[in-house]
Amino acid sequence: MEAEIKRLYPTWRRYARGLVGSQAKGDDCLNETLLKILENQPEKAAELATAGTLEFYVNRALFLMATDKSSRYHVKYSKFGLKWDCESSRHLGEPVPVWMGSRVDNEYLDAYISLMPELDATILRLYMFEDFSYKEASRVTGIPVKELYRLVEKAINKIKKNVHRTPSNSGPTSNDVQGL
Fold first, then answer.
1. Are 67 and 22 in contact (CB under 8 A)?
2. Which of the chain's termini has less CB crowding within 10 Å, N or C?
């Protein structure tokens, strides 16, 4: 199987890069696809490699991974994109000082969470734990992983929509912070 993957890797790489329109994103998509296949279905991958049909199976998986917005690749890449913008030097600047009213914002956040439907609030509270795992939450709750992704995203969007409406979220200007 290893020889088959080495032989087909350049072909898959070109295909993945063409699907997503970028070298870096294409490589990420291919790596996530192969990782998922090898983690979840190693016996099937070995069987397909022996039969000579692994190429088509991975091509299909690549296509689905690149086009499905709830796929492992899209979820990880969008989270990464939200936290870290590779195309800019924003992350190299001085950190913005913590706004003193952040405690008030946390109180608003807690209030919004308590007003949410029980399922949304529970999922969001679980999501806020450092050791949160979609797989573990799925195993415990019986909710499919894709549905958990959707629920978390929906809950976060509700919070964002409501928090942006609050006047306390405006915070001080940079001049106010320097004067402190």
1. no
2. C
Compute the distance between CA of residue 109 and CA of residue 116 in angstroms, rounded to an integer.
11
Whether 94 maps to a domain, the answer reads no
Helix axes 118-127, 102-115, angle to 10 degrees: 140
**Res 164: pLDDT:** 58
Percent of the chain at pLDDT > 90 equals 7
- What is residue 124's predicted lDDT score, i.e. its pLDDT? 79
**Which tens digit of pLDDT belongs to each residue from 42-96?**
899 999 989 989 998 898 888 888 777 777 666 766 665 555 444 555 545 555 5
Whether residue 40 lies inside any domain: the answer is: yes
Please state the length of the chain: 180
Cα 60 to Cα 5, 39, 66, distances in angstroms: 15, 17, 10
- Distance, CA of 42 to CA of 176 (rounded, Å): 58
Q: CATH number of the domain at 141, please.
A: 1.10.10.10
What is the extent of the structural domain holding 30?
2-83
> Residue 177, Cα to own-chain centre: how many angstroms?
33
- The pTM (predicted TM-score) of the whole model is 0.44
Of residues 68, 48, 70, 67, the one with CA closest to residue 57: 48
pLDDT of the residue at 47? 92
Split into its structural domains, the chain has a count of: 2
Residue whose token pair is 């439907």: 117
